[in-house]
Amino acid sequence: MANYNTFTDYEKQRKLQEIEEECQRVKRGKYWVLKKLGIPRSTYYDWLKTGGKTKSRAPKTVWNKTPEAIEKLIMRIRDDTNLYRSERSYLGIADSLSRDGILITKNGVWSVLKRQGKNRQFIETKKIFIIYPRSQRFLEVVCIDDIGLTNNKPRELSVFNAIDEYSQESVAILFVRHRINRHDVIELLEQIKRRYGRYPKIVRLDNAQAHKSWAAKEYCLKNNIELQFIDKGTPQQNWPVESFNGVLQKDLFNSKLWGGWTDLDNKQKILEDYQEYYNIRKPLDSDPLKRTPREIATGKTSLLTQKRLKIKLLRKHRGQVAAWQEIIKNIKQTTVIAESLLKAPCHLSEMCVN
C-alpha cells in the first residue's frame, strides 16, 4: 500500500520556496530538483497554481437552496411576535408550512434561520449574579438551608443544616418532621450558641417564607445577627451549604447507615454522628492541603495531616524514592507500637473469670 504525505498550506509554500532556491543554487532544471526532493511534477504544478493553498471542496453553487419566496415566509413567521414561542421555532415553522402545503424539512428551516443569523435568537443568556467574598474568620458567615427527604404532606421530612463559610464546618444540624418554620430557624441558631458559646455575625439564607418570618427577624435583631438573603434562583451564592447537602445525600442518605423510614427517633443521633465524622475525620477536596473542617477552623493540623504533608514535600523535593522510604518508616513505627500494646499485660480476662 502506497504511503502518502500530507502537507499543510505553510509546508507547501515552504516547499515551493525551497525548490526555487535549490534551482538557483545548483543551476539545474526543476525536473532534476523535483526528483531529488521526491516531489511529483503534477503535485508541484498544482501547488504552483494555487499558491500553496488547499483547494476548497465546497461547491460554488448551492443547488438545493430554499427559494426566496419561502425564505421571506419563514422570516415573516419568525418575526411575528403575536405567535407563541414554540410556533416561531424552526420546528413550529416547519409544521406551519407543511399545513399550508409547503413541504420543507426542519433542517431546511434551520439552515435558512442560520443563514439569516436568527438561529440562536431564543437561546437564554446565563444569569449574572454576585458571589460574595469568602469570609476570613470562623463563625463570621454561616450559610443555612434545608434538604427535603420526603414530600408527603403534612408529614414532610427534612434536614436543616448550618455550615460555616470559612472552614466549611457543620456547626448545626437538625432533623425536622414537618415543613420548615420559624421555630426551626431559631432552634438552629440556638444550637450554634450552645455548641460554640456565641452566635454567628452573618447568616446567609434563601428567600423561604420561614427564613423571612417576623419571629426569625426579631430573634436575629435581638442577638445582633445580620440576615443576608441571596438573590432568587441563585443557589450558587449559598454554595457552602449546597455543597454539604450534596455530600450528605451521597455519603449518608444513600448508605445502609441511614436505615429505613420506619424508625425516625434515632435519625437526629445518626446525623450528629455523621456531623462529628465530617468535621473531624473527612478531608475537604477543595482545600489544597486536604485538611478537615475542624483543622481549618482551629488552625491546628493533626499528626496524620503533618505526616502526609511531610511525605508530599519529600516527594516534591527529593523524589518518589525518599517519599516511599518515609512511608515504610512510618509503617514500621506503627507496627512496633501496635505489637508493644499487644504484649502489655492485661488483667481484663482475670477480672472476667472472677
Structure description:
It comes from bacterium (Candidatus Ratteibacteria) CG15_BIG_FIL_POST_REV_8_21_14_020_41_12. Residues 129-301 form the Integrase catalytic domain. InterPro entries: Integrase_cat-core (IPR001584), RNaseH-like_sf (IPR012337), RNaseH_sf (IPR036397). There is one protein chain. The protein is of the alpha/beta class and 354 residues long. The protein has four domains: 9-50; 68-115; 141-274, Ribonuclease H-like superfamily/Ribonuclease H (Nucleotidyltransferase, domain 5, 2-Layer Sandwich); 303-343. 50% of the residues lie in helices and 10% in strands. It has 15 helices and five strands. The protein has helices spanning 9-26, 30-37, 41-50, 68-78, 85-88, 90-99, 106-115, 182-196, 214-222, 239-253, 267-280, 293-298, 303-318, 320-343, 348-353, and strands at 141-152, 155-164, 170-176, 202-205, 226-229. It has a five-stranded mixed sheet with strand order 3-2-1-4-5, with helices on both faces. 18% of the residues are buried.
